[in-house]
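We emphasize that the prediction below concerns an isolated chain of 911 residues; any contacts that depend on oligomerization or on bound cofactors are therefore not represented. The input was used exactly as deposited, without trimming of termini.
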Amino acid sequence: MPGPRRTSGPFQHTREAIAYEKTVDACLREPDIARRLDKRPQATPENVRTHMLSEANVQRALDPCRGSLHRFRAALRKYEATRTRVDYLHDPPAPETIVLVLLSLGFLGALALAPWTFVAVAALLTGGAGLAVWRNHLWRMHVRHNLRELALRLVLFVREQQMDSAERWWRRDLQVNGVGPLMAQVVEALLGDDHDSLLLPDGYEGLRSPRNRQYVIGNEASRRLSRKVAQLEDGTIAVSGPRGAGKSTLLESCAEEADFAVVVQAPASYSPDDFLVSLYIRVCERYLTLADRQLPEFARLSAFRRAARRLVPAVRRGVRYLTFAVSAGALVTLGLAATARSVGGRYGKAVRLRAEEAWTDLADTAEAVWRGERVGVALAVTLAGVLLWRLRRSARVGSLLRTGWLLTSVVSGYLLVIAAPVSLLFDSDVHRNARALVEMSPLGILLLMGVAFLVFAYWAGEFEWRVVEVVLGTERVRRAVTAALLVCTLVLLYRIHPVQAMVTDTGNLLRVACALLGLVLVRAGSWTVPQPEPPLVTKCRNELFRLQTVQTSSSAVTAGPPQLLAAHTASLSTVPPAMPELVADFRELLTSIAREQFARKGRVVIAIDEVDRLGSDTQALAFLGEIKAILGVPHVHYLISVAEDVGASFVRRGLPHRGVTDSSLDDIVHVQPCTLAESKAMLERRAPELSEPYSLLAHALSGGLPRDLIRYGLRIMEIEDKTRFFELTDISRQMILEELAETLAGFRTLLGKEQWTADTSAILLSFRSLMGHLQYLCPCPSTDLHRALQHVAFYDLDRQLGPAAAAVPESTRLLIDEASTYVLFSLTLLDIFGRPDLARRRADAARHGPDGDPDLLAQARQELEVSPYSARPLIAAIRSAWGLLARPSGSTVTTIPRARGVPCSLHASTP
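Result of the prediction step, given as a token string:
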């Protein structure tokens, strides 16, 4: 490798410049940088690379990394100096050097692997060759020169590794602290001031899975609900809000925090009996699941097939277990049989005598108590019997016995496991063989210990072997080579006589037996005696059978003389429980479950979702009245999601009369649409690369409703994938106009159901003309489309139709006003987001006061659902703050241009 050459500029060596250029190229390949390039004419990889290689930017990138750069330069200087000395001493190896090195390697190999006879022969050959070289002056000079060069080459290799390591460290530091941050600034400068308006999608998994719990973030409504649940020991809390506001997510989040929770969906066409039965079944199943009990399986197949389904897996597991258990047991028994017999012969007689003495003493004591000779012992035995009977239902006694058994077995087991290796320290034979091992061949032992250490270190991953990494490459091959090295090391160690003597010591079998017995005792500590089924589990299982099956019992009686047989049969069938009985049983079961959870300081939550699907507030209130009987269970929190009108009924309770919500609900939590800050946080969690202007666009279109917010966020990504647009102006125009086209199609369908005349049909023609403009969408600004939108947005029915406007019904007028106001809202969004330089115009709007707040756009979208007449002044104030035309001239309003009949020539391929 040629030595580093010095260069001019910020770099002192050519290798520094090469490393810097490699770092620049690596940063250009970073996903965060690469996805921002080629989106605008100036932001190309070539321009970025040119700017990063300028002397000023190079100096800025090097300044934060001076420490690592100095270490790299010091390593470069040391490598260069060593390289110069190696080049100066370079000389082909002499024959006598090669012979001497080969003999020395052979001697070392024989010392470690071969018998001592070969070691002596190798030592004589090596010593003779060394003596001959030493006595010949010319040979000695050549060998010394070659060995010095070899030593310097080893030093050069170390210096090269140090230099490479210092370079990698500097490049990593440069990429993280120098080139990386500076390149991000360069790219932003090349993209322009409005770089946030670029859509640079990287990942949006959170938008693709709206129900995924890991993307849910807390908001004010969730915190308010958590506080209310914590303050109330029990009660019924309603969660009110518009559709898509996140009521279901709120209930599920609160249910996840509870110890026992059941979430059920209210049926669209409800039946109180069916709903209660469904809730009853869910509660029983949930309790059995939490108690880790199997749900009952109802008969669906023949008895033979049900038995086969249960037996075949059990038999298969048993056969596999017995195959390994019998084989392993036979091997262990064969290996430890002699040791067990030896231990039994040595200690068996003494243990048996001690056990017989203990049994004799116990029998004599029992006989004396029976004859009445030991009154004190008899009294103690009697009291023990009474106490044992009193403790038959105490769970604490069973827990103490299990704890005592666990401690005894685990402690004794670990003591046996530890005692096995510790006993080696007190074995005289082991001491003698260890001393013989050290005295016999210390060099060989040190060599084998070094090999074992290197293998272990390589296995643990502490060292980075470049040759092994390059040659082997894969993890599987590396582990195979490591295992082979371990086996070879163990074989070499076993060939040494003292090691072999220590391995084959007769006491090792007893140590292995003790260790195995200790492991069995440790494992036995987790064995438990099957406990009787808790009463609540039995009750839940019985209720599932009663609610989900129909049980029939029949009997037959034969009476009379044998020649005249008379058969009488009777059948008994269960009757489904009536509503009052069902309510009483459900409350009793739920009370028992809640009492058990309350004793454990747990919480029980029953969440009833989708009550607002029932249609009208009258049906929802009727549903609450029907299920009122199951509410109010002690220590149970009922959470019910209701529509806004039901929540409004609770808020105005007692004004002027009481309603069903007064007696059914204890409190209510209103879920409001998200603010702009909450919408940004939600989208940032689900799509981190979605910039602020796109979050503002999705927030304005959705009105802050989380469900629509996620949908519009996904719609943005869909438009980018479909059209390959990256600018906010292009994507926003496409998205707003697509939404407008779909909404106008719905309005036109509703308008088509109204009664029209020849004089009033001009309204339909105006909507048809506008939808013609929306047929071929493209990001190109269109004056005709803008005039068509203004025509509908500021539609004046009386001015357009004249006297014929009086014939238009009020319902039709309301539809027209709703459609025109929505078009005005879409036109406002188009004027705000469809023009460049959003950041500057946003700052200008903010200086106009509250009407310039971007959050007001979402409020205008929410107001559209209340009334078009209250939404239009709000939109007008927004347009005034953003510097948009409040109302066009009369000529613009009264005429609508003809729609384009062919796609745009520049964007003809855009779907």
